[in-house]
Amino acid sequence: MLLAVCVLALVLGLTSCGTLGVPSGNFPDETNVVSGGNSLNETGMVSGLEEIPTVTGDLQVQIFMPDTLYAPKTWKEEDELSEYIVRGRLLDDAKQKLYYYTPKDDASDGITVTSFEISQVYKGNMSPGDVIPLGEDYWTIERKGKFIRYEGYEPSSAGKEYILFLRKGEDSSELRKGLYLPTIAETGIYPVVDPAEFDVDSKTAKELNLVVRQTEDYRAIYKEVIRKYMR
Questions:
Q1: Can you tell me the distance from the alpha carbon of 132 to that of 162, in angstroms, rounded to the nearest whole number?
Q2: Using 50, 70 and 90 to split pLDDT, how confident is the model at 102?
Q3: 103/189 Cα distance (integer angstroms)
Q4: Distance CA 185, CA 15 (A)
Q5: For an engineered disulfide with 163, which of 58, 107, 180, 190 has Cβ 3.0 to 4.6 Å away?
């Protein structure tokens, strides 16, 4: 009996040691958040990236609808769908990650990944100074001297400041795992503006950087974003 008790105690002790310090699945996975302002290229936090082709000729743009079942119409809905809300600056280190159905095919899916340096956090477990890999639904290919960019929305601009509503890429997605994605494509990203000089209602879809979304819904959310985070 004494021997059995000792063995049981030993097993329980080893089990405890084996799980000590390992977070449960309820905690956010922050392994791709880097403190100190380093870019994703300096840290190598994302694998499988390649250089974006330099466009030296005509660029053909192909628009596609991102795979989303629902588009928020209000700031409250956007907030409820988002794991993180942050303000920050897009760095100038964009690369892309492509998916090929077969090795001989053109890329059937892709994403552009850029470092985003956070200055303010409104929601989620991040801190000012953190740098995250932002995944955006567009990619570029070059075939026989022709350049094609596939856009789920208009690319963001390096050096520009944005308010982002974000969610973490699904672990089941090899292409988007470990990335932070704007919540429901275009409705997750808002350029920081001077409220005194920027009239949302007067802007065209092109001026708002919109490709596939309804401008009315985006404008309604943008007004709330300006009121809450830019005044």
A1: 13
A2: low
A3: 33
A4: 43
A5: 190
- Give, in order, the Cα–Cα distances in Å from 32 to each of 16, 72, 125, 128, 155: 27, 27, 12, 15, 22
pTM over 0.70: yes
- Alpha-carbon distance 158 to 95, whole Å? 12
Average pLDDT score over residue span 67-72:
69
Query: Taking the C-alpha atoms of 205, 206, 207 and 209 in order, what is their torsion angle to the nearest 10 degrees?
Result: 90
Among the residue ranges 9-18, 109-118, 204-213, the one predicted with the least confidence is 9-18
Pull the structure tokens for residue 114.
């850029």
Residues linked to residue 105 through DSSP beta bridges, in sequence order: none
Confidence of residue 33 (pLDDT cuts 50, 70, 90): low
How would you classify the pairing of strands 84-90 and 59-63? Answer: unpaired
What lies within 8 Å, CB to CB, of 158 at 6+ separation is: 90, 91, 92, 94, 114
> Residue 2 — pLDDT band, cuts 50, 70, 90?
very low
Whether residue 35 contacts residue 45, with contact meaning beta carbons closer than 8 Å, is answered with: no
Radius of gyration for the alpha carbons in the chain, expressed in angstroms and rounded: 21
Mean pLDDT of all residues in the chain?
79
Q: Where are the alpha helices (DSSP H) in the chain?
A: 2-19, 40-43, 75-81, 215-229
